[in-house]
Design brief:
Protein name: tRNA N6-adenosine threonylcarbamoyltransferase
Radius of gyration: 20 Å
Structural class: alpha/beta
Bound molecules: 5'-O-[(R)-(carboxyoxy)(hydroxy)phosphoryl]adenosine, zinc ion
Helix content: 40-55%
GO molecular function: iron ion binding; tRNA N(6)-L-threonylcarbamoyladenine synthase activity
CATH topology of the largest domain: Nucleotidyltransferase, domain 5
Order of helices and strands: EEEHEHEHEEEHHHHEHEH
Main location: cytoplasm
Oligomer: single chain
Cofactor: Fe(2+)
Subcellular location: Cytoplasm
Length: 332
């Protein structure tokens, strides 16, 4: 079975080829244009997808050594994401499926982040919990089967990736600031500064308060020392990262306790964060969890995870017709 998958939900154009159960190629074209605007500009993102999609798909097929005519199905991200970005991937996938007369498979981007754990040999057993943390989402998902999952906790306001990126902006770091906070945090003291931990009921999260707390904290410090940020960047980053990771782990521990599930995974862009990866390993050892952390290349947006999710749908002949259209707020 040869499957081509396309991901274009935000600002990465990606194509991957899966042959039987193996990912054979995973090509990702990032869009650097957004950096100068401090965030993703939707109109520029769809234009860049339009430019990248043909070369990215051709490269993915060439890397996998699979000719177009040998494909058995085409998968694409239907949502959630930016409408203009999703439209490029969806239209391209539909046209190619039509031209080759092969089935079309729609994939939910957030489900695909979870199913990235089935790339390779170390897979969680069902049921497992997945903390999916990205620039747009923060979810605790109970996964009963590949295509049977339920969100049991989520953010009521900002996503944790947004909290990283907005905090970085307050520190005058370029977009996306999450990876930079991670880098500076490695040289800092996580207990140097304290930020309040928001209390949310149940398994839900809130990250808007922490952003305001950081804003006021920096404003007060800068009043007495205008060089405060420059002089304390590693400690500030380590303290912010520590706080955000604690907020995530508190709820993940509660979810594991309440469900009795001990196979615990993380997914999404923020699962690349070294503080979160270390804290999860440590908590897992303390509580007897089996912990699953994706390889870096499958944390942030990529088409390999779309291919993996599509494989489960292909096995059930779960195809869509040519009248399918993107769902920017797609849920599951
Ligand atoms: O999953 P993803 O690539 O795209 C979305 O679907 O949103 O996640 C992107 C998010 C951004 O907010 C980015 O700052 C964050 O993941 N991120 C990180 C790290 N790497 C990516 N945040 C903290 N530490 C990192 N190392
Ligand atoms: Zn994502």
């Amino acid at each position: 079975m040869n499957l081509l998958a396309i991901e274009s939900s935000c600002d990465e154009t990606s194509a991957a080829v899966l042959v039987d159960n193996q990912i054979r190629s995973n090509v990702i074209a990032a869009q650097l244009i957004h950096e100068q605007y401090g965030g993703v500009v939707p109109e520029l993102a769809s234009r860049a997808h339009q430019q990248h999609i043909v070369p990215v798909v051709e490269r993915a097929l060439a890397d996998a050594k699979i000719p177009k005519t040998a494909l058995d199905a085409i998968a694409f991200t239907r949502g959630p994401g930016l409408l203009g970005s999703l439209l490029v991937g969806a239209s391209f996938a539909k046209a190619l499926a039509l031209g080759l007369n092969i089935p079309l498979i729609e994939v939910n981007h957030m489900q695909a982040h979870v199913l990235a754990h089935f790339i390779g040999d170390s897979n969680p057993a069902f049921p497992f919990l997945c903390l999916t943390v990205s620039g747009g989402h923060t979810q605790i998902v109970r996964v009963r089967a590949p295509l049977d999952m339920e969100v049991i906790g989520q953010t009521q306001d900002d996503a944790v990736g947004e909290a990283f990126d907005k905090s970085a902006k307050l520190l005058n770091l370029p977009y996306p600031g999450g990876p930079l906070i991670d880098r500076y945090a490695r040289q800092g003291n996580p207990l140097a500064f304290r930020f309040p931990l928001a209390e949310m009921p149940g398994l839900d999260f809130s990250f808007s308060g922490i952003k305001t707390a950081i804003l006021y904290f920096l404003r007060d410090q800068i009043k007495t020392n205008p060089q405060f940020i420059d002089q304390n960047l590693p400690d500030i980053c380590a303290s912010i990262q520590y706080t955000l990771v604690q907020m995530l782990l508190t709820k993940l521990k509660r979810a594991a306790r309440e469900t009795g599930i001990r196979d615990i995974a993380i997914a999404g862009g923020v699962s690349a964060n070294s503080g979160l990866r270390e804290a999860l390993q440590k908590t897992g050892q303390e509580l007897g969890w089996r912990v699953f952390i994706p390889a870096f290349e499958y944390c942030t947006d990529n088409a390999a995870m779309i291919a993996m999710a599509a494989k489960f749908k292909f096995d059930q002949s779960d195809f869509v017709g040519q009248d399918v259209s993107p769902l920017p707020r797609m849920s599951f």
